[in-house]
Amino acid sequence: MSLLHRIERADDALNWHGDMPTKGRYTAGIAGERFFREIKERGQFLATVCLDCDITYMPPRLYCEECFSQLEEWAEVGSWGHVHTFTVVHRDLDNEPLSEPRILAFVTLDDTDGGLVHYLAEIEPEDVYLGMRVEAVLKAEDERQGSITDIEYFRPM
Amino acid sequence: MTGDRVAVVGAGMTKFVRRAQETPKELSWEAAHLALQSCEMTIDDVDAVVIGTAPDAFDGVHMKSEYLSDGCGGWGKPLIRGYVGGGTGVFAAIQGWYHVASGLFDTVLVVCEEKMSSCQPHPQAAFLTIFDHTTERPLKPNLLWIFALEMNAYMNRYGLSKRDIATVSVKNKRNAADHPAALLGDPDITVEDVLNSPVLAWPVQRLDVSPVTDGAVALVMSANHVARRVTDRPVWVEGVGWNLDTAYWTNRDLSYPVYVEEAARMAYDMAGISEPRQQIHIAEPYDPFDYKELHHLEGLMLFDRGEAPRAAADGITQRDGDLPVCPSGGLLGVGNPIAAAGLMKVAEIFWQLRGEAGARQVPGNPKRGLAQAWGDLMQVGTVVVMGV
Amino acid sequence: MEEFVYDSVYLSSDDFREGRVLFEMWEPNARYAWDAGVAISRYLQGLKAAKLIGRSCPDCSRVLVPPRMFCESCFYPTDKWVTLRDTGTVLTFSRCYITWDLIQLEEPQMPAVIEIDGASSGMGIMHMLGEVDPEALAIGMRVRAVWKPPDERSGSITDIAYFRPLEE
Predict the structure, then answer these.
(1) How confident is the model at residue B159 (pLDDT cuts 50, 70, 90)?
(2) Has residue B358 got a pLDDT over 60?
(3) In this predicted structure, what is the pLDDT of residue A5?
(4) Average pLDDT, whole number, for chain A?
(5) A26-156: what fold?
(6) Which chain C residues in 55-114 lie under 8 Å from chain A, judged by CB atoms?
(7) Which terminus of chain A is more solvent-facing, meaning fewer CB atoms within 10 Å of its CB: N or C?
(8) Cβ-based contacts of B38 with chain C (< 8 Å)
(9) CATH superfamily of B6-121+211-387
């Protein structure tokens, strides 16, 4: 396209507004269904274990990512661990300031090779440090839905 | 043939279902795991992974192949995703071929997955974006329009009736009754059932259309020296082709898929095929709508223009006919999880040429077959020719 | 091959409605402002003035509509704006009884591809047909654009309300 075709008046440049009217409906899946049901019904965290590769998956997987075999060994694990890394969030998705900053962390759970991304609370952002011991705070049993938000947050132990 | 010889040595798939409980990763793993098992390989034998999957908006996961990667056996391996809309499933096999033919890799795992049930209220919400956002979408289009407009142009050009075309839907849904993964197999369906089904967008009626589906399919593709070691029945990739027409779909002659012809010519040249009607024994053309099977058979030069409907009416394309077409049951019968549906066709040729298709097996020991898919903005043809 | 088909878990709509299966819903805030670009901005301005505008390629001489700044066949810049007529010929049509989100329609919508007079042979645009009995539609039918009144035109493809049969 040559310069001769350049748009010279801003009014000449038009745009068109539209959307993509999709909604996602995500099943928890085979492994996820069991994981979240256990939290909902018993407040218990479960992991899957690959005995061959010596990996304990948190959240649990249906298959071992390394050797690709089906995982049938489920283990009860604690709902506590340590802060692997964290960030302090000051704005929402629309870039509006939050009334209170929130701490988002990746928590490595004890006796597993994985962990969960979740919020930290009952602590000031400046007091969080990598390696800090934390535990999950669950919602009351009758409020739990089988969702990641059944965990309200993690807090210092 | 360019490059090293490449064979398909294993295949696996999930059942095709309307709504799967599995996550997209889990579906991918189910198919990939079985494909490896079918040729007694493990993930350690896989040098690279090719993923085919259609719009991210179906599964509702952006960067879908990165998300799918561990379920496809891609952890710690070279991985690529190809995407040409509905043509993706067959294109993934083409990518698998050139990854190996180039000499870069000995064995490649090809996985195609689609979980369309995630897309609410209907996958059409995502399909809508194929229409131009400024010159077409303000007219509030519907995906069915584009098929209805093409089908009408095809029927009008050759004076075809709905009855001429409905036979395809009947054949494929009946064939699918013998497919263990099929969603819509029906041994008793009749042409009258198709003709009496609700009109959606004339000339398209409910039973002219393949269903929204969840599913995954995987293939293992290996270089000559590996293939001969792992199986005594490798199915060789003899030719591949792909081609795109203009994206201005309203400027095209909708009655003939010239891009399919160009893709077929590329694949036939590579395979040394000069007389496709004699040299192709079995075909799996893309059939998301019944007329598309006929349209594509003509584009593949397996029948003269406008002649495929008569051949179908004469029984030539039945499983026991001279040219069995969609013996799997196709998208109309097995189901249409977009990318996975295309790869299902390649898997069907693999099983048929090995004589492993069970109740679906076509008679006469077919030696060469082709799979074809179509997509993007009704503009891409992808073709793979395989032989034993 | 049966042993290589995985027995995936099928869910019914009721499994979701009645909470027998765990799932999350999420609605992405996917809103866009697409630039119309050089050629289509001019096309939209033409529509506002009740004109259909095409663009011609100096190499293959095709007159292209919708207009574009390069010919995708010659891969050469197009160089002239061409005012087309607002009449044309139906290349193909449908009668659609369902919306994209599966709402049934009593009266069909009538989308069509219409070859525009003044553009090269086969150059169609998608639009709607109106003021015609749905059963009387035919490929080859001659049609004319029905323009919205000037004060309702906004520089949109919908400035043409629809195309109706042309009495010649």
Answers:
(1) very high
(2) yes
(3) 56
(4) 93
(5) OB fold (Dihydrolipoamide Acetyltransferase, E2P) (2.40.50)
(6) 69-70, 77, 101
(7) C
(8) 3-4
(9) Thiolase/Chalcone synthase (3.40.47.10)
